Amino acid sequence: MSYLKIGKIIDSHGLDGTFKVFSTTDSPKKRYAKGNKVYLYNENTDERLEMTVANFRMSGQIVFVKLEGIDNPESAKEFKGFEIHTIKDRNDLEVGYYFYEDLVGCSIIDQSKNELGKVIKVEEFPAQITLRVKRTNGKDFFVPFVKQFIKKVDINDKKIYIEVIEGML
């Protein structure tokens, strides 16, 4: 089973065991919906605890999440620093959309079939999503994740085919 990180617990909030969460998902209303199963993940022990969302509310990128069975701030504080995961399901994605973590590690291939490097990070800028690519030889370069540059994404083979324009490299 594959998991997707959707947030990180930064603290407890209030007296009822609600978590203050830094959300890393593009669809918090869907991911933190009442009744959903989420998994509290401890990076240090590599353990996951399945929980059910009781309710949530948003404030920008901060989400306040109440989980069933955690009813006081003392219990909530035990989970500070834990990640919140959900089960990764590609059926949740529209055509042409990808999980960022699936793009990391993909080889970047130019129109002449040369491998230019590998994606090391997906960065969000105000204008668009951008791939940071570690060049095979040399310093990193960026590829905007838009149709003008991205010609084909093959997640199974871990390859992204791009159109290189002058000044990109």
The radius of gyration over CA amounts to 19 Å
What is the ordering of alpha helices and beta strands? EEHEEEHEHEEEEEE
Question: What ranges have pLDDT less than 50 throughout 5 or more consecutive residues?
Answer: none
* Shape estimate: elongated
Distance between the termini: 38 Å
* CATH class bucket of the largest domain: Mainly Beta
**Count of domains:** 2
Structural class: mainly beta
CATH level-3 fold name of the largest domain = Elongation Factor Tu (Ef-tu), domain 3
CATH architecture of the largest domain: Beta Barrel
Query: Main sheet?
Result: 6 strands, antiparallel, barrel
Task: From the structure above, extract its key features.
169 residues, mainly beta, Elongation Factor Tu (Ef-tu), domain 3, SH3 type barrels, 6-stranded mixed β-sheet, 3 helices, 12 strands
Question: Can you give a write-up of this model?
Answer:
The chain is elongated, with a radius of gyration of 19 Å. Strands 1-2-5-4-3-6 form a six-stranded antiparallel barrel. The chain has a six-stranded mixed β-sheet with strand order 10-9-8-7-12-11. With 169 residues, it is mainly beta. The two termini are 38 Å apart. 21% of the residues are buried. The chain folds into two domains: 3-90, RimM (Elongation Factor Tu (Ef-tu), domain 3); 100-162, PRC-barrel domain (SH3 type barrels). The chain has helices at residues 28-31, 73-77, 100-103, and strands at residues 3-13, 18-23, 37-42, 47-59, 62-67, 83-87, 107-109, 115-124, 129-135, 141-144, 150-154, 159-162. Strand 8 and strand 9 form a beta hairpin.
